């Protein structure tokens, strides 16, 4: 193990940062969380003390001005991702930005351009993609164990509806279940199939009690070769996060597709087996992959254009849910409603 460390700063004290990403970086082989910032200095100090972080700042600007920080993690509300990614890039910091990377594909494009011009790395924080089980899933499919893939079904739901002040329920902040958890099965289908979707049709429940954000959405995403992803996502429903990949001669069942037990099941020609993995912190794996790309020891696993493509799909899903129409996704990224 190398003594070289990537020095991280964290912009904000969000729950996901405190609960998962900061401990993941601290447990990684490559990273140290050197500073954390909040617009509330007391909050920054308290979080730094709780998590053993050396330096606390009372503004995001002060952290970005710290020349000892190599990279920043941005867990801010969705509507702030673009601004602070671009400001971090201008300060010469590499950026790991929480998902979804932006409010729309246009914002994502601006962020990617800014980071590329500044010569810094930009990665969207889909931690699950760094776990080796997804490499294994793709190997099983490519080996023909389940035949030809005919469809995928993904879910990510939870119930936090009573927390009325949550930023997830603020429309202008980019609230809603498609942004928050629907992005997972959408990105997973793209990862597994290795192609980009052509259209989306989504039905959603927009809650008057929650600033009219989508609290539940169900959809069909059309991929090339007549393969469909059916998915549902929710912030006001019983909790689950699953994935099923259906083939002509078998299927893959992932009971905890994004968080939880990493094991999954392969059913092939009537035989069922469990694929077992040792416990691994996928947030640590994400941090290590990020650091090694910064150090140019290995290429980025996912180029930032991947985040743009996922935002194009999210844009289509949100438009479809709002307009009650099937929305095609042109190669140019322009969305078209179809009656």
Automatic annotation (TrEMBL):
Residues 6-124 form the Gfo/Idh/MocA-like oxidoreductase N-terminal domain. Residues 134-253 form the GFO/IDH/MocA-like oxidoreductase domain. Keywords: Oxidoreductase. The keyword Oxidoreductase applies. Gene3D superfamilies: Dihydrodipicolinate Reductase, domain 2, NAD(P)-binding Rossmann-like Domain. It comes from the Bacteria. Belongs to the Gfo/Idh/MocA family. PANTHER family: OXIDOREDUCTASES, TRANS-1,2-DIHYDROBENZENE-1,2-DIOL DEHYDROGENASE. This is Gfo/Idh/MocA family protein.
């Amino acid at each position: 193990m190398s003594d070289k460390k990537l020095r991280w700063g964290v912009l904000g004290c969000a729950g996901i940062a405190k609960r998962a990403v900061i401990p993941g970086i601290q447990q990684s082989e490559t990273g140290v969380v050197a500073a954390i910032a909040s617009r509330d200095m007391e909050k920054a100090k308290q979080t730094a003390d709780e998590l053993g972080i050396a330096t606390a700042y009372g503004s995001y600007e002060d952290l970005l001005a710290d020349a000892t920080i190599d990279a920043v993690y941005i867990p801010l509300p969705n509507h702030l991702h673009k601004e602070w990614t671009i400001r971090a890039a201008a300060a010469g910091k590499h950026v790991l930005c929480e998902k979804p990377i932006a409010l729309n594909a246009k914002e994502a494009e601006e962020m990617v351009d800014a980071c590329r011009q500044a010569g810094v790395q930009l990665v969207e924080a889909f931690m699950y993609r760094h776990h080796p089980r997804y490499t294994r899933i793709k190997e099983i499919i490519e080996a023909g164990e389940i035949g030809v893939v005919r469809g995928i079904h993904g879910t990510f739901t939870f119930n936090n509806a009573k927390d009325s002040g949550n930023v997830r329920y603020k429309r202008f902040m980019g609230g809603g279940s498609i942004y928050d958890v629907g992005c997972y099965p959408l990105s997973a289908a793209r990862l597994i199939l290795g192609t980009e979707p052509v259209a989306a049709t989504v039905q959603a429940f927009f809650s008057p009690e929650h600033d009219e954000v989508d609290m539940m959405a169900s959809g069909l995403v059309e991929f090339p070769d007549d393969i469909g992803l059916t998915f549902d996502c929710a912030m006001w429903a019983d909790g689950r996060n699953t994935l099923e990949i259906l083939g002509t001669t078998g299927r893959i069942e992932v009971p905890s597709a994004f968080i939880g037990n990493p094991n999954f099941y392969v059913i092939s020609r009537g035989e069922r087996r469990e694929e077992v993995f040792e416990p691994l912190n996928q947030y640590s794996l994400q941090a290590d992959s990020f650091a090694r790309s910064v150090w140019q020891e290995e290429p980025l696993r996912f180029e930032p254009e991947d985040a743009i493509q996922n935002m194009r799909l999210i844009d289509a899903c949100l438009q479809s849910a709002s307009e009650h129409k099937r929305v095609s996704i042109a190669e140019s990224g322009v969305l078209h409603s179809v009656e």
